Fold this protein.
Amino acid sequence: MGAWGYKNFENDTAMDWYSELNESPDKELLYPYLEQIIKEEEFIDDEESFISLAILEALGGKLGLIDSKFSLPQIDDMDIVYLQEIVLKASKKLLFFKAHSELRELWEDSEDYDSWFNYQVDILYKLEKHFKKYGFMDVLEFDENIEEQWKQCIKEQYE
């Protein structure tokens, strides 16, 4: 898997992506990975997954929602509301997709699965709470099945 820990930047793929993003900040290093996961109906590749979760953490770091040394750099013409929407959609899909999510399955076979899963849920929860505060969540459309699983997960962990 190329990972040495359960956090989103504890793998070679995310570190390589982050290095490239900092060398030449461009929204094309963000949107295509997230959009590919959202569009996928059968198989979510682990490379896009590693990068999408790194984007999740870097966005949380940029907004000051989590303690992370990784943050998205300033990117010209980046629509932050759109980025927030696709980060939430893609990340939830990685965690709750009924079909094949390669990265999730790799973690399910690991003794660190619960730590990995809970780490993602914590960042997602904070990000979603932040967006609700500003009214962004009212206009987003999510997959009903994935959203139902998300709500159940939040109920079990935070209520």
The mean pLDDT is 89. The helical segments are 12-23, 31-39, 46-62, 80-96, 102-108, 113-133, 144-158.
